[in-house]
Structure prediction request, 350 residues.
Amino acid sequence: MPSMEFMKPLGKGAYGSVDLMRITKPDDGSEPCYHAVKSSYAHDYESLRKEFRILSKLRNCPRIVQTLGSSLERGVDDYGVRVYKMSMEYAAGGSLASFMETRSLRDSMIRDFTLMILQGLVSIHSRGYVHCDLKPENLLLFPRHESFGGGLKSTYELKICDFGMSTKAGEESEFWEFDSPFLGTPLYMSPESVQDGVAERALDLWSLGCVVLEMYTGEGPWPFADSKDLLPELLSGNGPEIPQSLPWEARQFLKTCLARNPDERGSAEELLKHPFLRNVSDDQKKVMVTGAAGSRREPAVVLESKDAKKKPLRVKIIPPKPLQFKKVSHRPLRLKIIPPKPPGCKLIQV
Prediction:
């Protein structure tokens, strides 16, 4: 019988909490695995059951966080109160929101993540659902580590999670109320959704535009802390301001996502063909990470050349700085691996 050990809390929402659990199978001697387990009390059971049902329909779909197991589990908390649990795959990279707290995203990285979100939305929309709460906190990152030139190369896969507020397309959301007309998190809601409370696929595309804007600016899409200040803007059909400093293709993409007329936003499938994503491919979904864990990291540069791997690497010894620059004594030498630059290669910023 597998044993489940609590490791740490991962997050808490309106309808439950998520904890990291270590699963051990003592009989077969295999390595322990880690699950993200969402727990809800009996009064929120229906919400958790609905989310599990939606995720079951999205099983094996690209860019969607996957559930583990064929049903919800029943258990008790530390006080003996009954709880219901849903096991999911664990995203060791955390959420996009926490990812952006420690670094500035380069243009190419933003395009990669945008493409992954759209791929997830295609899966959701094709099965007749609207996510209704697309935001950085509900986008999880799964790191994949590989050795590269004596260093570490990390590629990230982004997946959409938290379907607790999802609604069938064309239906009125159960979360819409006259005094609080929001189908999801207010900052990411579209003008038409707050007016009638009907969940349409175009809402997710508006939310996507807000997320992309936040990836570029590092700030929320609206300068409001209170939803009461935001509501008049949405009821007037206004959208977030798009800075002129953004790349032209990015601005055009955002104008499409944030179009006042929801029909002008098109579909997730159509947005995948937008010029903003034209040069993004699976081979380019790579993010280089350097530096100590938890420190702010600058995206590195990748050499685009088929011959680069065939060339021998050069090793450059970098001695420690003199004491007058930094008061560190007995500092060990650092090795920097410098891959050769083949003729005609191009530097691709990630």
Summary: Residues 301-349 form one domain. Residues 283-338, 341-350 have pLDDT under 50 and may be disordered.
